[in-house]
Amino acid sequence: MQPRFRIIVGFALSFLVMLAACSSDPKSETESPVDAGSESALIDHAVVEHDDGFEASEEAVPDAPNEQPPIPTCPPDSWGNVPNTQCQLIEQSCESKLLTCFPSVINGIAGTSCTALGYGAKTRGAVCESHSECASGLACLAGNCTPFCCKEHQHEICGPGGQCSISLTLGPKYWVYVCGYSEPCTLWLNDCPEQEACHALITDGTASCSPPSSGSFVAEGASCSARNDCGDSQACVSHEGSGNRCRYLCKRGDSPWDAGAPNAQPGKGGCPDGQSCQKLNEAPDWLGVCVPTKPNG
Question: Would the pTM of this model clear 0.90, i.e. be above it?
Answer without folding.
Answer: no
